[in-house]
Amino acid sequence: MKTIIIDAIALIGAFIGMEGVAWLAHKYIMHGLLWRWHRDHHKKEDDGFFEHNDFFFILFAVPGILCLLFGMFNNYNFVFWIGAGITLYGLAYFIIHDIFIHQRFKILRHSDSVYFRALRRAHKMHHKHLGKFDGECFGMLWVPFKYFKEMKNKNA
Ligand SMILES: [Zn+2]
Ligand SMILES: [Zn+2]
Ligand SMILES: [Zn+2]
After folding, report:
1. d(Cα 64, Cα 77) in Å, to the nearest integer?
2. Where, by residue number, does the polypeptide cross the bilayer (predicted)?
3. pLDDT score for 156
4. Which of 16, 46, 91, 121 is most deeply packed, by most CB within 10 A?
């Protein structure tokens, strides 16, 4: 029983922690050292389906896969569940950011709620900035409270 609790904490903790990691990576890596990969996500360069920005999916998938493998070889211990949390976050990020917000696949178009509207608005604010050094809203699933308020007032 005890291990189930530890595994659950590992899974949920990794998922929540990844929002912080994503924020840091977006602000300091994607808008930092590896800006040349992220730049075409802010300023379209051609009409192709893939962006250089997609390299980050491969890069950011590595830690999750390593944790999954390491945990598998150790009897599916908590490291496996950390890997599962990281990987699930990556999936959620992809669904929200690439499908829901940027509509790279023509599904999930009509998802509508205050949360989804606020989330889309927050990321639009991120995209308003075209340069490397200015920016806001680097997170993804955690939406700053002010956008909830803004969207709620719009509804009323
Ligand atoms: Zn960005
Ligand atoms: Zn972005
Ligand atoms: Zn974006």
Report:
1. 14
2. 6-34, 55-73, 79-101
3. 54
4. 121
User: Which DSSP string do the residues of 62-113 spell out, in sequence order?
Assistant: HHHHHHHHHHHHTTT-HHHHHHHHHHHHHHHHIIIIIIIIT-SSS-STT---
Domain count, the chain: 1
> Closest Cα partner for 118 from 151, 88, 92?
151
> Ligand 1 centre and the CA of 4: distance in Å?
37
Q: What is the extent of the structural domain holding 19?
A: 1-108
**Does residue 45 belong to any structural domain of this protein?**
yes
Residue 125 located in a structural domain = no
- CA pair distance 122, 135, nearest whole angstrom: 11
Does residue 148 contact residue 118 with C-beta atoms inside 8 Å? Answer: yes
Give 150 Cα–ligand 3 centroid separation in angstroms. Answer: 20
Using the mean position of ligand 3's atoms as its centre, give its distance from the Cα of residue 140 in Å: 9
Q: What is the pTM of this model?
A: 0.90
Q: Residue 127 has what pLDDT?
A: 92
**More reliable by pLDDT, 29 or 131:** 29
